[in-house]
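WYL domain-containing protein
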Amino acid sequence: MSKEQLADLTQPQRDRLAFVELRVRFIGEIRRQDLVSRFGIQSAAATRDLALYKDLAPGNIDYDAKGKSYVLGADFQPVFDFPPERVLSWLTQGFGDGEPMLLKAWVASERPSRLTHPDLDVLATVTRAMHQECPLGIEYHSITSGRTERKIVPFALIDNGLRWHVRAFDRKSQEFRDFVITRIKCPVVLKDDPVAPHETSNQDIQWTRIVELELVPHPDQPRPEITEMDYSMDGGVLRMKLRAATAGYILRQWSVDCSPDHSLRGHEYRLWLKDHLALYGVANATLAPGYRAPTPHPTGGGAT
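Tokens:
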């Protein structure tokens, strides 16, 4: 599809075609009803949009008569140049699926840019495997193990504030782990490889466990009332419920002092975890600033 062909279409048409491409590229399929529900158009109009996209971008989508849906074509080449932030917003928050455009902001604003972005082709393969509930063959590069070939069963994306991970069951270690998406190469969806019951998300204890945390103004920082205002605390406490699998990331991102004696110093530590035992059993609690695992009592009693 050329820019001239796109220019001949109306903006609503381009938005619908962009949605078609997003669905097929990152989810793996689209049905006529998806367009009807998203844009409030008639079924006949949705049929025309799908036919138009197929004509303008040959090889990008194929009709699956058995599933009565359009699926990713073997020769897919993206037509729309979506910024990674837009794609991730759509995948995780469900908006931003119109044609990517530079629009004038309503008010002046600035925000820090991420230093890294996942490759969209890799991300698309990961998310298609998630949607289709299939294993994923990957080449993974880690600091400790270098390059390894793995089969994983992905089911969720995690933003740790610095980079994106995919939560998955790792068949190599037989554990649920987080994989940095930028370290994944050559992903392949393994459609004919069944997923075992123990590889599904409901068997991931760290994912299904919800931890309840109480954050308070750091006792050694001045003007606690300002911290209460900044974080909209209720009675001097910010109460949070997090998945255990994400708790360490979030506490690190927010620079929460998780030491039992609020011993961390520095202006960045505005918050203190009131009860460090709330992180007991959280696998990534070691990421939380100042966290120390409870040690057994000398007499054999409970944790301290």
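The two ends are 65 Å apart (CA to CA).
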